[in-house]
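For the sake of transparency, this paper describes our internal protein records without simplification. Because each token names a local backbone shape, the row as a whole describes the fold. One such record is reproduced below, unchanged from the form in which we store it.
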Amino acid sequence: MRIYREKDYEAMSRRAAQVMAAEIIHRPDCVLGLATGSTPIGMYQQLIEWNKAGVLSFQQVRTVNLDEYKGLSPDHDQGYRYFMQKQLFDHVDIVPANTRVPDGLSADPAAECAQYDAYIRSLGGIDLQLLGVGHNGHIGFNEPGGVFVKPTHVVDLTERTIDANARFFATRDDVPKQAFTMGIGPIMAAKKILLIASGEEKSEAVYNTVCGPIDPHCPGSILQLHPDVVLVADEAALSKVAAAGVAV
């Protein structure tokens, strides 16, 4: 695992954007696994800036997203398809048909999960998978549990995850209790993984992901087994890793 320690969120976002842009430039038709949440917004803004400046093109890029809330429509303002449109897709030259997000309204969730994994395989897998890490160590919506779940699946969100996401909804009761999430299998099959983190509140999760035992109770810890992981984080998020004596 290569670790880049950046001074703050802005520097972290720019470095992460450089890693993703390099992948696109090297392989213009690459398959990107994308993530939502507050952490990647700055990175997406930098990519938009480069696209508008004409130095980066998404015309041949294909994307698959990590997750979507079960029960939310693509145009729901807290859904992840909506997020991706507003934070990236609507502002760059990507072909809409080349973007894929799990269907939160699928009448057959099991079939939707199987079809999602089949679609990823049909693309030849993911070239670069972007990940954030939750306060409890989750990646995507793969929550802490007794096993690493390999395929895309529907997950019951933990109370801590619901609490963390409640700020985006009118009330905590409005937060969906389930979500579709890409499984550990397609994540770990990605050729390269870009993990990003910001803020002291993520420092314990980052430490457990990087330095802790490989344990499904911290899903991110499985990344220690991947051959090509780049962690880009700010000083606050890496504070516990640095305190443990790990070179960052």
Notes: The longest helix spans residues 9-26. The mean pLDDT is 96. The CA atoms of residues 33 and 129 lie 4 Å apart. The first strand starts at residue 2 and ends at 6.
